[in-house]
């Protein structure tokens, strides 16, 4: 589409240049609207607003398509590995054999964290939520590497990327171990990324722990599916925080904080709590009715998406994987999984969900897999964060290297009081002021 767009008003006509996308909708460049027309645009939740140009991930929500750097997600999930996908997202191309070996080596050899982080975790109460500990633990890395980052230096960007991707599983495992009251386990350089994570989470000093290969591969695949999702809330948070030039570890901590919310990554934990609350199939109708009732805040967790108006392609892969993992673990008759399948079918056939195009999303089944692996629900979003960190770093790098990049500073439509005079305390009418 190359039509000319313009905005006409009593102040005159302003041409809105057209920005072409390589695929999917392009955009109207509205940067000059305020200067020329004296008005802002209004788009809460950014439903129609592109905050940046990006060459990392493409989503076609109408057709359920997701591609990283042009490669379809189902193909990557089947054929690639998480660290290869991380390289692809960060560098734009699949690595050669040597490049991949070098990348894997540097991630592996950056996985230890400063010993004093252990004491940091011990300062948390025993029931602190692991996402709170992860946010703080990652934020604290900015104190360990305070002066080492010139954010515009490509070499330093690479070192930051390797450090954070390497250390996040170690910090996540510390958060998990603290929450279950077990000693921290050091990383092992002879294990691959996901095997090492499982080892740090499940090994205890009093016995040997063998990582199950199939479980590690399932986790690796889950991480590929979660690695990036273009300008979602947490990625946009990392971009916004990073736009001020802040220490990038602090920007990633901000992204983790955003991911925690139940509308975003926190949905995987919320799905399990919801399924437990529903309890059994006889209660499904009651909860579907609650989800449709506008006077009730309850939503069907793991359903719906801002962009997908079709089945989330990640959910398709995860659903299949869920069957395999449960079979492998001898849990194929898992009651929560059976309840989830039944709930999904009933919702998909319900006119409310059909009309609003609400389909299961990536979080609907991932919690069931994590639960089957023996993880507690409070750690599910931490697992999501480890995977999404790769996307956050790729977007942070893309942003700082983008010549169009400026500090993010949205405008507003002010709806408060107009100028008024200060009233001294003794003259104020106490009844008039709302509490
Ligand atoms: N259950 C019941 N109704 C829903 C649901 C749901 N899960 N999701 C959306 N709706 C309804 C909503 O009430 C609204 O109805 P109406 O038009 O009558 O007011 C309509 O569908 C559109 O919803 P919206 O809130 O305007 O849509 P959104 O794009 O702002 O929100 C969402 C997207 C994912 C936050 C929302 O669908 C939701 O809350 N889902 C449940 C939480 C969830 O599973 N989140 C994970 C998202 S995927 C992974 C990730 O992002 O990390």
SSE order and pairing:
Blueprint: E1 5-9, E2 12-16, E3 18-19, E4 27-28, H1 33-37, E5 57-60, E6 65-68, E7 71-72, H2 73-79, H3 82-91, H4 97-108, H5 116-122, H6 130-144, H7 154-180, H8 193-202, H9 213-226, H10 233-242, H11 248-259, H12 267-278, H13 284-292, H14 313-328, H15 335-348, H16 351-355, H17 363-372, H18 380-400
Antiparallel strand pairs: 1-2, 3-4, 5-6, 6-7
The protein binds carboxymethyl coenzyme *A.
Q: Can you put this structure into words, describing what you see?
A:
- This protein has 435 residues and is mainly alpha-helical.
- 50% of the residues lie in helices and 6% in strands.
- The chain has a 3-stranded antiparallel β-sheet.
- Helix 10 (233-242) packs across helix 18.
- The protein is globular.
- The mean pLDDT is 94.
- Residues 45, 232, 263-265, 267, 291, 299-306, 356, 358, 361-363 line the site of carboxymethyl coenzyme *A.
